[in-house]
Amino acid sequence: MKIIYKALSLLFSVLGGLLAGLLFKQAWKLAAGEDDAPDADDPDHGWAEVLAAAALQGAIFALVKAATQRAGAHGVRKVTGRWPTD
User: Fold this and answer.
1) What pLDDT was estimated at residue 5?
2) pLDDT for position 38
3) Residues 6 or more apart from 85 whose CB is under 8 A from it?
4) How far apart are CA 71 and CA 65, in angstroms?
5) What CA–CA distance (Å, rounded) separates 50 from 45?
6) 2 pLDDT higher than 80
7) What is the pLDDT of residues 5-59, one digit of tens each?
8) Which whole-number Å values give the CA distances from 7 to 30, 33, 57, 78, in the listed order?
9) Which of 65, 66, 53, 67 is nearest to 24 (CA)?
10) Any stretches that span the bilayer, and where are they (predicted)?
């Protein structure tokens, strides 16, 4: 069961990463009014904007990762009656 959970977890991690990327892009559009967030080496943006973009991106990715892992574990428990790490 743990092997199946690990395989599904990997799949959901990839899908979660794609979802997080889309959510970040939309959040950045709302926050900054720009289509793309600045890269760290972009000379046209200041420290504050680059670091704010990085913090927002990190928060969104961490939230989506935790949510997908937790949902997957709950799904395994619902199907098998056991928490996947037991």
Assistant:
1) 83
2) 95
3) 2, 73
4) 10
5) 7
6) no
7) 888 889 989 999 999 999 999 999 999 999 999 999 999 999 999 999 999 999 9
8) 35, 38, 26, 17
9) 53
10) 47-68
Contact 28, 38 (CB under 8 A): no
CA 5, 10, 14, 16 torsion-angle sign:
positive
Contact partners, residue 9, CB within 8 Å, separation at least 6: 69, 72
What whole-number distance in Å separates Cα of residue 20 and Cα of residue 5? 21
For residue 15 the two structure tokens come to 């899908």
The full DSSP string for the chain is -HHHHHHHHHHHHHHHHHHHHHHHHHHHHHHHS-SSPPPTT-TTS-HHHHHHHHHHHHHHHHHHHHHHHHHHHHHHHHHHSS-TT-
Give the gyration radius of the chain's Cα atoms.
17
